[in-house]
From TrEMBL:
Gene from which the chain derives: LOC106814512
Top-level taxonomy: Eukaryota, Metazoa, Ecdysozoa, Scalidophora, Priapulida
SUPFAM superfamilies cross-referenced by the UniProt entry: Actin-crosslinking proteins (SSF50405)
Protein name as it appears in the record: Fascin
Family statement: Belongs to the fascin family.
Species of provenance: Priapulus caudatus (Priapulid worm)
Residues in Fascin-like domain copies: 35-145, 154-263, 276-385, 410-504
Length: 504
């Protein structure tokens, strides 16, 4: 799920990262009673009764005039309005003065929405939502903002046009393209504020250090400025990029373009190991060859789903796409997307993947390592070991919520949580993965197929890309991880469908 409704036609922007979302935000709004603002499917009625953020609880925040004036659009495509009597409806098809609200932010990070036309604040509980309060920043009109974007993203600084990434013991905003594991950023919602977490599960302190535990110095108020995000610390200063190397820390008390960030989807990036034990690489130029042992940026490829054809694009850090050439050769020289760039990924029982080219034939590595699509039916020589590179930690979200522990005292996992738990990903030489909790306890499949971090031995899993931002997770015994609305999370799925797909 993206932060906004912005679309990139099934592939990311030419910058090499995901599509930049600046036109609007997809968010959930939680009142002081812990309930989400909800737009009902029938009658265009709204209430504050949602217990979790699903489709009816997602609102698109759109700029409406000035920098801090916005409108709220429901999943039904209608805008929230108020009249002079404070009645709140959600029927308007277009934005006008009655649909405009200014945002005011409290010290604890919660937002208040004030009618621009009438000057009253929006709030209430249950079905009793009105825009009649003149008291600013009181509990009954304050809303916590829950970004609807998947928590694992790339952050791009608006002024520098560079991406944030981990560099040794700090975060720096100096990467042209978000490439590899270091560019993965996790946004963690805590008590109405957000923490910024690096790929090695550390928190960004406001002074620019990375620390192991979250506290007041690692939590930031989320602000909306002209479609972009600003993060304000507990001392009233904003995260920014400082110096020539863009060291990320809090410094200024006002917002300029240096303090603004766009949030972009983090596409999966992977390495392909051929039957000869060598990694596919672009080190030699445009020809793709399985001839490298070391893992560098030239052996990492970004995998992007094409929504229209349900095929896959494979992109290099040089912003070129894999493409089928005459004679069956595979090269990485295409700067534009054409049918010759559309590939299929066929997942095998042993966790490997066979890559089918646009000519209907499978890609193989020849004796010299060069890739060509000349094989009608895949054999072991056409199986590539797939290594997911940019998810050293992972957050999983299914159709019923996040994967997390049943309770703070439990070691059993459920799949309907409102907040996520971090999953550590450990790769094995055979292409399988171990999954662990933050304390390095391994996931284990029990005899009744439940998943727990209590017990031995550690269970092995295969990660298989299935759709845009969606994967399936299969046990070595062949069953998929499956979720139920009640929260049951078990390794007993037999086919790919909604309850066995996980946003990552």
């Amino acid at each position: 799920m993206s932060l906004t409704n912005g679309s990139n036609n099934g592939h990311s922007s030419s910058s090499g990262g995901g599509g930049a979302y600046s036109a609007g935000w997809n968010i959930g709004l939680i009142n002081s009673h812990g309930k989400y603002l909800t737009a009902e499917t029938f009658g265009f009625k709204i209430n504050a009764s949602g217990s979790s953020m699903k489709r009816k609880q997602i609102w698109t925040l759109e700029q409406n005039g000035g920098d801090s004036v916005v409108s709220l659009r429901s999943h039904m495509g209608r805008y929230m309005s108020t009249d002079k009597f404070g009645n709140v409806t959600c029927e308007a098809e277009d934005c006008g003065p009655s649909e405009g609200f200014s945002i005011e932010i409290s010290k604890d990070g919660r937002w208040a929405f004030k009618s621009v036309e009438f000057g009253y604040y929006f709030g209430g509980v249950g079905d009793n939502l009105r825009c009649t309060s003149k008291a600013s920043l009181t509990d009954d009109v304050l809303w916590s903002v829950h970004l609807a974007v998947h928590p694992q993203v790339n952050l791009r600084n608006v002024n520098r046009k560079r991406y944030a990434h981990l560099r040794e013991e700090e975060m720096h905003v100096d990467e042209n393209i978000p490439w590899g594991r270091d560019a993965l950023v996790t946004l963690e919602l805590r008590e109405g504020k957000y923490a910024v977490k690096t790929c090695d599960d550390r928190y960004l302190h406001r002074d620019g250090r990375l620390v192991d535990e979250a506290d007041a110095n690692t939590l930031y108020r989320l602000e909306f400025h002209g479609g972009y995000m600003a993060l304000k610390d507990c001392a009233g200063r904003y995260l920014t990029a400082v110096g020539a190397d863009g060291h990320m820390k809090s410094r200024n008390s006002t917002v300029t373009k240096d303090e603004l960030f766009s949030v972009e989807e983090s596409h999966p990036q992977a390495s392909f190991v051929a039957h000869n034990g060598r990694r596919v690489s672009t080190k030699q130029g445009v020809d793709l060859s399985a001839n490298q042992e070391e893992l560098t940026d030239t052996e990492i490829f970004q995998i992007e789903r094409v929504k229209t054809s349900k095929k896959w694009l494979i992109r290099t850090k040089q912003d070129k796409y894999w493409s089928l050439e005459s004679g069956g050769g595979i090269q990485a020289k295409s700067s534009t997307i054409s049918p010759s760039c559309h590939f299929d990924l066929d997942w095998q029982q042993n966790g490997s993947v066979a890559v089918k080219a646009p000519n209907g034939r499978y890609v193989t590595a020849k004796m010299n390592g060069q890739l060509s699509a000349t094989i009608d039916e895949p054999t072991a020589k056409e199986h590539f070991r797939f290594q997911l590179i940019n998810r050293p930690i992972m957050v999983l979200r299914g159709s019923h919520g996040f994967v997390g522990f049943k309770s703070t005292a439990s070691r059993k996992l459920e799949c309907n949580k409102s907040s996520h738990d971090i999953i550590k990903v450990e790769q094995n030489e055979d292409g399988s993965y171990f999954l662990k909790d933050r304390n390095n306890h391994y996931w284990h499949i029990e005899d009744d197929y439940f998943i727990t971090t209590e017990g031995a031995p550690a269970s092995e899993f295969y990660l298989e890309l299935q759709d845009h931002t969606l994967m399936s997770i299969r046990s070595k015994s062949g069953y998929y991880l499956r979720g139920e609305q009640s929260g049951l999370f078990k390794a007993n799925g037999t086919e790919i469908k909604n309850d066995t797909l996980w946003e990552f």
